[in-house]
Amino acid sequence: MNPTTESVAPVAPAPNAPGKPGRWRIHRAWIVAAVTFVTIIGGAAFNSLPGLLFDPLQDEFGWSRGQIGLAVSIDMALYGLTAPFAAALMDRFGIRRVVAVALSAVAAGALASVWMTAAWQLMLYWGLLVGLGTGSMALAFSATVTNRWFTARRGLVTGVLTAAGASGQLVFLPLCAWIVDRHGWRPASVTVALAALVVVPFVWLLMRDHPADVGLAPYGGEYAEKPAPARGAARRTVRVLFDAARTGPFWLLAGSFAICGASTNGLIRTHFVPSAHDHHMPITAAASLLAVIGIFDIVGTVFSGWLTDRFDARRLLAVYYGLRGVSLLFLPLLMQATVEPPMVFFIVFYGLDWVATVPPTLALCREQYGDDSAIVFGWVLASHQVGAALVAFLGGVARDYFGTYDVVWYAAGALCAVAALMVLVIRRGAPAVRLAA
């Protein structure tokens, strides 16, 4: 098929298939991908807040950075641990229902936090509710959409949907920083809740669970009937985990991705702003730097998806982790009260590398685990968030103990070197295991 017309040609359904796909001048898969992108942006909005709230919550309630970091770590851990079950629930109940409920949970947690007065409430609202909600819209969600709606361009679409999280950060981080600085943290939390609620109608009206719902084939593929709802979602999710855990590639992928989470969400997203503020940089300036990471994250992730369609995913990951580790070793030298060119270079570089690891990691999951790759990737993502959760908590404890974040930057840089070696060990070739049906 001519690639210049591939994206606009209607795909004919199988005989007697429902729907009239010819009315869609753009393949419906791209509409679904666009809604998924916007949904992930809405879900990512609340993740823009943690790094901004350490100082306001500490000043108002007297909570230590370790206590606040613990709430963030619960959020991040549940974000990861919920993802594989959410992928299975989407197979059982459909994407629309699961995502609509997840967005509502995020909004509820954000609104409830406005009235909290104790640290345990922060852990309940911010940690539990928001963690469960955002976890249901994690990368396993984008993997499910990509696997169902696309046969061609999967690497590119994965990169674009992964970049949606960065786009949410880009949109909401400067806004939330301004609101926190001018009006306090509560209006910022309300803003995030409203952003999540606004997305719900788009999901319900435009999202569809399967191409067969509208009589289409996946983009670049052949028409297939919609499978029956998969029962026993939790049982299947756990069974897939046990099957995958008997293979070496799973542990290598999970371990390297845990380090990925530790060095991004757990470290930079959570502790960069308070660390920069320790060096007397204004919070709004530090938040703006994180927003710049979001800009270049989009570029880097989409480009990584393009590269993943063409090059060995193992080598790409080794390069990404190695360069990330080197950059972290230099970061303590760059922290100043003002934004200087070396810091800008770090921000651009780190942004290009931030989640560039996702498309090749997902590609390796598909290569090794086939039809259950979305659930396996959900468990790999869980390890990502566990790594992030540990560093979100331990980073705050280290700052309380040492009075500086320097030791955390150096440790994360060394771990990235370990991750680069881990991915190179994964063998290329036949799938590691045929998972239970």
UniProtKB/TrEMBL annotation:
The protein's name: MFS transporter
PANTHER family in alphabetical order: EG:103B4.3 PROTEIN-RELATED (PTHR11360:SF284), MONOCARBOXYLATE TRANSPORTER (PTHR11360)
CDD domains referenced in this protein's UniProt entry, alphabetically: MFS_YcxA_like (cd17355)
Start and end residues of each stretch annotated as Disordered: 1-20
InterPro entries, A to Z: MFS, MFS_dom, MFS_trans_sf, Proton-linked_MCT
Record bears the keyword Plastid: no
Pfam families (UniProt xref): MFS_1
Compartments reported by the entry: Cell membrane
